[in-house]
Amino acid sequence: MALIFHSKLSVDLSQILNDADDFNVIIRVGENKNTKEFHAHSVILRARSPYFKRAFSTEWIIKKDDVIMFNKPNITPIVFEMILKYIYTGELDLTKYQGKNILELLIASDELLLEELFNNVQEYLFENQKTWFQQNFVLVLHTVFKIANCKKLQDYCFEFICEDPEPFVTSEVFPSLDEDILFDLFKRDDFRIEEIIAWDCLIKWGIEQTPGLGSENNDRTKWNNEEYESLKETLKQFIPIIRFVEISSKDYYDKVRPYKAIIPNKIYEEIEEFYFKSTLPKTTTLPPRIGKSYIESKIIRLNSISIITNWIDKKDSNDIRDKNDLIYKFELIYRGSKDGINNNSCNNKCNLQEPVLILIKCKNLKKIFGGYSSVGFYHHMRNEYQNKYITSDDNFVFSFEGKNDIQNMKLGRVISNVNVVYNNYFGDCGFDFGGGDLNMQNDNLYIKNSNYQHTNNNGIYIIEEIEAFRVNCQKGKRK
């Protein structure tokens, strides 16, 4: 029988680290006023770290009185103390440390080739430090993209940006973004941003990154040929990955054409031919930036749509979607501010026997209401469905506490699939989930709980904006 005594071993090694006087290594870490010396044992460091095994094997090491003197100014004392704790005991309680220290530990563990520690620290940051992660996003972004092995955090950073990119690309920190990071971001198909906004932000970034331009020289009407050439050189790898065909002719004329000098001649000729003759470019033909499930909504943000697609797939709100899951396309078919907030407009636009998603924003309320009908709304049909209920097991109604809410949403699935959608031929309502559970009558929204699970939103509200989307889907594909 094998006897295992790891806990006692860990305690004894911890005492060696803290109290022993037989050390043969002094490691000085930190710089300026934040420095500290640590006493350690070369045999333990060599056994636990391939980095130290190589470092202590070279003839270039410095010794003083048979003690190895080693400097690591790029690692702070608090982080190196964490590293020694791990090396000597195999234990480390990350909950005692701030996010900044844990990020620095990630960098140090990668440099010192402590693979086990590195993998666990990356996992901890991903799982337990997301709030700090998002508050210090640019710092994290630049840090993890310097580490080749940090793929999981790199993917999370990109997914976080792509979910709702506009606040990031229009932020004050965007012009300082590293070129390699920006390139990897712009070439992604799931970078969910209007192409003209991507172009505007790229120009702003390029001006800031180009020597001789920047905030003191950002008026292009005053630039000479050399300054245009400098900007062209800065942006040369980005121009071919701009989806010019997604930019309207007006925006092209007003915002792209003035920068003709920075666009390679062949690409520019193809763009011109596209706008004049509708001939697709050969050099820069890329798919639109719609990513996986995309929605062009003024009511909810993109990060809410992943929750709704999970509900459509009958998953929990926060389930991580697999690459083979269904990919949804939400086609806008009705917007109240454009088409009119009334029964007739809604009836005419939503007369479909296809899945339809409804979103409603009401006056003086932050709360967002909505409903999904897998069978659509059979308005204006003189058949057996006239003024009858339509059945479905897949319908649901829901609410979000606000535009940015992804935590406190409420879902109400059908209780009985008999009275799920009311087919109102005479147009006395815009749409009707469950005979009044979620019901539009001109510019009023009526809510009660009857045929759908209770969502605690009973009342009458004035509609400020309403949107309807045809929901199409296709099978996901692995990249």
TrEMBL record:
Stored SUPFAM superfamilies: POZ domain
BTB domain span: 23-96
TLDc domain sequence ranges: 298-472
InterPro entries assigned: BACK (IPR011705), BTB-POZ/Galectin-3-binding (IPR051481), BTB/POZ_dom (IPR000210), SKP1/BTB/POZ_sf (IPR011333), TLDc_dom (IPR006571)
Superkingdom assignment: Eukaryota
Protein name: Serine-enriched protein
Organism: Rhizophagus irregularis (strain DAOM 197198w) (Glomus intraradices)
